[in-house]
Amino acid sequence: MKIILISNHAEKARTIRLNSWTKCVLSIVLLGLPLAAGGLLGVKIADGRWQLLFDNSIAEMQHQIIVQRDEVDSGRAQLDSSISAMTLKLAKLRSRLVRLDALGEQLTQIASLEDGEFDFSNTPGLGGPLGKPQTELAEHLEIQDKVSAMFARLDSSISSRESQLQILQSMLSDNKLKSEQLVAGRPIKKGWMSSEYGMRIDPFHGKKQWHAGVDFAGRHGADIVSVASGVVTASEKRSGYGLMVEINHSDGFVTRYAHNDKNVAELGAIVTKGQVIAKMGSSGRSTGPHVHFEVFKNGRTVDPATYIHNTYR
Fold first, then answer.
1. Fewer CB within a 10 Å sphere, N or C end of the chain?
2. Is 170 a domain residue?
3. Structural domain of 165
4. What does the alpha-carbon distance between residue 165 and residue 103 come to, in Å, rounded to a whole number?
5. pLDDT tens by residue, 4-30
6. Looking at the 3D structure of the chain, how many domains does it have?
7. Alpha helices in 112-141 (DSSP H)
8. Is the distance from CB of 212 to CB of 191 less than 8 angstroms?
9. Is the pTM of this model over 0.70?
């Protein structure tokens, strides 16, 4: 290989001959420098890209951590809210259960039911065969199952007590209705029996005469009450009775309240047991303030004393 050097100051050109080793060194110098520079430049660029990629990865990870932290906070808030809601519901259910128990006990005592027929102080009997062992999924949901089971037990207890109260209310209503319709008790709130049913000495002419009712003496203007619920079929002045109220009851019973000072119940009115229907007086054939009380069954008079002491059982 020859290298020719040309100079403006020299008269002729100079020629340099290169041997094999010189050629190798020159080739390495001429070709190696660009390659080394390119390699260094490539490494530098690659380092920059890796740095950028690394920075982006860190930023993305930080963003994911923030998002996950927000999700955890949101989940914790929802859990706290759910627990608060369940606690409030539990408190309401327990309060409702206590009120039902108290009401049930009171109604049971009022109804005079047998002991043990409606026992609101004890948990209703429950049972069933033993189930299979819990699965792995059920074990993971054990807490949720326990909470659900607790509310289910409370709902069951409340439903049981409500059913008992409905039955009890029905029994009380039936008992009250029968008690209201039953002819029983005295037609006055204060006073005493002054004449019995049957034959007696007539106070006006002194001869024996049939007395179709009983007399209750008392204070003028005292309350006269109905001995059973029914419909007023007469509220008028009648010969011998004076001012009189007649009430038609169930099962063929009719009651009369006579010699009143004033009739309170009007014709056609529906009255209840114990309701004031008149004021005691001495109208008609009477010697003083009292109420003449008669009881009819299927159109015939009967001894009112039998029903005065009668009670519904």
1. C
2. yes
3. 81-120+137-181
4. 8
5. 555 555 555 566 565 666 666 666 656
6. 3
7. 136-140
8. no
9. no
